[in-house]
Amino acid sequence: MKDASPQTIYLKDYTPFGYVVEGVELTFALAPEATRVKSRIRFAPNPDATDRTFFLHGEDLTLISAAIDGSPVTPTLTEQGLTCEVPDAPFTWEAEVEIAPAKNTALEGLYMSNGMYCTQCEAEGFRKITYYPDRPDVMATFDVRIESDLPVMLSNGNPGTQDGGVAEWHDPWPKPSYLFALVAGDLEARSDSFTTRSGRHVDLNLWVRPGDLGKTAWGMEALRTSMRWDEEVYGREYDLDVFNIVAVDDFNMGAMENKGLNIFNSSAVLASQDTSTDANFERIEAIIAHEYFHNWTGNRITCRDWFQLCLKEGLTVFRDSQFTADQRSAPVKRIGDVIDLRARQFPEDQGPLSHPVRPESFQEINNFYTATVYEKGAEVIGMLKRLVGDEAYDKAVALYFERHDGQACTIEDWLQVFEDTTGRDLSQFKRWYTQSGTPRLSVEESYEGARYTLTFRQRTPATPGQSEKLPQVLPVAVGLLSPGGEEVLPTQLLEVTEPEQSFTFDNMPDRPIPSLLRGFSAPVVLERESDAAEQAFLLAHDTDPYCRWEAGRGLARGSLIASVVDGADPDGAWLDALRAVVTDPALDPAYRALMMGLPTQSELAQALYEKGITPDPDAIRDAVEATVRATADRWADDLRGLSEEARVAEPYAPDAQQSGKRALGTRVLSLVSRLDGGSAAEAQFEAADNMTLKLAALGNLVRLERADDALAAFEAQWKDDRLVMDKWFGIQIMSAPAPVAVERAEALTGHAAFDWTNPNRFRAVMGALVSNHAGFHRADGAGYDFLAGWLARLDEKNPQTAARMATAFQTWRRYDDDRQAKMRAALESLRDKPKLSRDMGEMVARLLG
Ligand code: ARG
Ligand code: ZN
C-alpha cells in the first residue's frame, strides 16, 4: 500500500551492507493462512563496510520472536523492516515470523496458486518471507527444511532428507535472497537426466499439476538442448545434482531463474500441438534457455545492486538470442528481434518512460524490468561483440567468468574484462549504458572521380532527465553494391564516434548503392531520405537478409504513410517488387513470411508523429486495411500456389522449417480471406490438427464477424484449459473490428471464466485491447476509461502486473488534443486514487511527466 512518501533510491548512494552472511537456515511449517518461517542466520561484521547499522528488510510479516546468540531481543519494527542492537563480532540471528500465503495476491514472496505453494523473490520478494538483508550483494548458502503433508516439496540446491512430512534442501552455492525458491504441492514430474561434459550426472524434472504431463516434452527437450549449448558455446557446465522446473498458473512474469529450481509461468513452459502455436513453442524454447543460462550469467555471477539489472538480463537475453539463432534461422531470428525492439523498446525510449539501460534511480524496481534493460541491454552486448570481434568477445567473457565467479558485479566490472582483453578504451562505449534515448543516424553520400563518401551525423533527442546528449559509439556495418547488383564491397564495420563523420571508398568505377546498418548493427533510427528506387533495388539485390527485409519495410512504410496522409493508393511498384521476393521458391518460407509483414499501426502512428503529422488511428487502420486488400487483389493469381507451398505434409513438428511454412501460410490466408469472405478460413478452422492453423483461421473469422460458431466450438472444446482459453479471450478482442473492440472486451470481462486476478487472463483481455490500435484509441475515449478502471481495480491486488499494463499509455502524447486530454484524464483518475501502490504511483507520475 501507498507509502507516506515514496522513496527514490539512487545508484550513486550505493554502500555495502555492514555485515556478511555466513550461512542461512530456514524452516517452513506450511499452512495457507499461517505459515511459520524460522530463520537462523550467521552474521559477521563486513570488513569492507563502514556503516554498521543492522537493518533487515521485512514487509507484511508478523514477528513472533527474535534472538541473538540464543538470547531474546526486541528489535525496532518499521513498515520496511527492523533494526536491532547487535554485537561487534560474529553472531547468530534467530527469528520466527508468520505469513499468510493464501492472502498474498501480489504474487511476490510466498503465495498460493491453484493449491500449490510457490515463491517469486526477484527483485524484492524475499523480505515478504522473513527478515533479511534482501539485497543482491549479500550472498550466502541456504539450508532449507519444509514441513507439510504435501507430496512434493522443493527448494534450491541438492535434496537432503526427504521423509514423510519433511523435505530438506541444501544449496552449496552462495546466492542472494532473490534466487531463493520454494514449491510445495500435489505435483507430477516428467523426469530425465543429463550428463555434463565433465561427467556430472544431473536429474532433470519438470513439475506440473496432474493433467499437464502431456505438455512437458518440449520443455524438457529445450532444457537438454540448452545445457549442451552452454557447454559448447560458452564452456559453462551445470553445477548441482538436480535441476527442477515448475509450471505455475499465477505468475507475474515469464519465468524465474532461482538456483536449481526455476519457476515458470505455465504459459512459458507448457506446450502441445493441440494447445500451443508455433510461436508459443519457439518462445518456450527461448525462455527455458534464458532461465537456464542465468545459472552462470545471473546466479554464479550476480548483480551488486538492482541498477545493474542489465548485467544479467542484457547478457542473458543476448545469449538466448544466439541460442535461438543456432537452433533455427539466424536471419529470421535477427529480423524478429528488430521487429520486437521497434515495437516495444523504441516507444519506451521515445516517450516519458525512457531510461538508460542502467537506470540511475527508481522508486519501485519492478517497474524497470523493461524492454530497455532486457532487449536494448542485449543489443549493447551485440554491439560490443561486433566492435571487438568474436574471438576477443570469447576471451573477455571467459575472463569475466574466471575473475568474477561468486561475486556480485557491476557494469564497470563487465566492461573492464573487455578493456583488459583488448586494450580498448570503452569509456565512450559506456554511454550506451548511461545515456537514454534512441540515437538518430542520418547519412549523406557523394561520388566524385571514383571516390565514394558516406557522411554520418548522429544525434539523440532529449529524454526525461537528460537534455544534453553526447555522441555514442555506433558500429555501422556497411556493404556496397554495384548498379548491376554485385557486391563491390563486402560488409565492413564503420565506427561512428563523432557527431559528424565521413568514410571514403576509393576505386569505385560506378556510383555504388549502399547497404547500411547491415544486420541492424546498432539500435538506432536510420534517417535516410527515402528513395523508393534505391529501396526497390535493395529489396531485389541486397545480400544482407536484414537490409533486404528493411528495404521492403521502408517501401511499405512509405506507401502506408502516403495512403494515410493523401489517401494515395498503395504503391503498385512496391507490391510487384515484393511479390517477386515472396514467390521466390529459393528463399526460406519463414523469411518470405516476414517480408509479407507490415509495420504495426502503432509504429505508423509514431512515424507520422515524428514527421510532425498528428496520427489519426482510424485513418491508419483504413490505410492498412486498404493496403492488405490491394495486395490480395494484385497477388490474386499467386495465392493458390503460395498456399500449396505453405502446406506441411509431414506430421506436426514445431521446428523452424515447418513453422516457417505455417507462418507463410498464415500470411497467405489473411490475404485469401480478403477475397473469399472467409470460406478458406472456415475450412482451415475445421480441418486444422494444430493450434497454429486453428488460431490463424479463427482470427480471420473474428475480423470478418463470422466467428460465432467457431468461437462456441472452441470454447466448448477448451473451457478447462486455462492457457487455451487465454487465446480465446484474446483473439476476440485483438482481431475484432476496431469500433466494437471495447464492447467485446467489456462483455468478456463479464464472462464466468474472466478470473482477473490471474495475470495471464488479465493480460489476455487488456493486452489484446491495447494491441487493437484503433480499437483502444477510439475517439470517445471508451478504451482509455475501460483500461484505467481495470488498472485501478487490479492495483489493489497485484500492483506489479497493474503497473506494467499501465505502460499502454506511454505513447499518449503522440495523439490529437482530444485523445491526449482523455488519456491524461484517465491517468489522473488513477493518480488520484487513494491507496495507490508504490508501483502504480511511480508509473503514473512518470507517464504524466
Ligand atoms: N529474472 C527473471 C528473468 O529471467 C525475471 C523476474 C522478474 N520478476 C519481477 N518480479 N520483476 O527475466
Ligand atoms: Zn532473465
TrEMBL record:
It catalyses: Release of an N-terminal amino acid, Xaa-|-Yaa- from a peptide, amide or arylamide. Xaa is preferably Ala, but may be most amino acids including Pro (slow action). When a terminal hydrophobic residue is followed by a prolyl residue, the two may be released as an intact Xaa-Pro dipeptide. Pfam families: DUF3458 (PF11940), DUF3458_C (PF17432), Peptidase_M1 (PF01433), Peptidase_M1_N (PF17900). Residues 533-848 form the Peptidase M1 alanyl aminopeptidase C-terminal domain. SUPFAM superfamilies: Leukotriene A4 hydrolase N-terminal domain, Metalloproteases ('zincins'), catalytic domain. One of its GO terms (molecular function) is metallopeptidase activity. Its EC number is 3.4.11.2. It comes from the Bacteria. Keywords: Aminopeptidase, Hydrolase, Metal-binding, Metalloprotease, Protease, Zinc. Residues 218-432 form the Peptidase M1 membrane alanine aminopeptidase domain. It is an enzyme of class 3 (hydrolase). GO terms for biological process: proteolysis. Residues 28-179 form the Aminopeptidase N-like N-terminal domain. InterPro entries: Aminopeptidase_N-like_N (IPR045357), Aminopeptidase_N-like_N_sf (IPR042097), PepN_Ig-like_sf (IPR038438), Peptidase_M1 (IPR001930), Peptidase_M1_dom (IPR014782), Peptidase_M1_pepN (IPR012779), Peptidase_M1_pepN_C (IPR024601), Peptidase_M1_pepN_C_sf (IPR037144). Residues 437-528 form the Peptidase M1 alanyl aminopeptidase Ig-like fold domain. Belongs to the peptidase M1 family. This is Aminopeptidase N. The lineage of its organism: Bacteria, Pseudomonadati, Pseudomonadota, Alphaproteobacteria, Rhodobacterales. The gene is pepN.
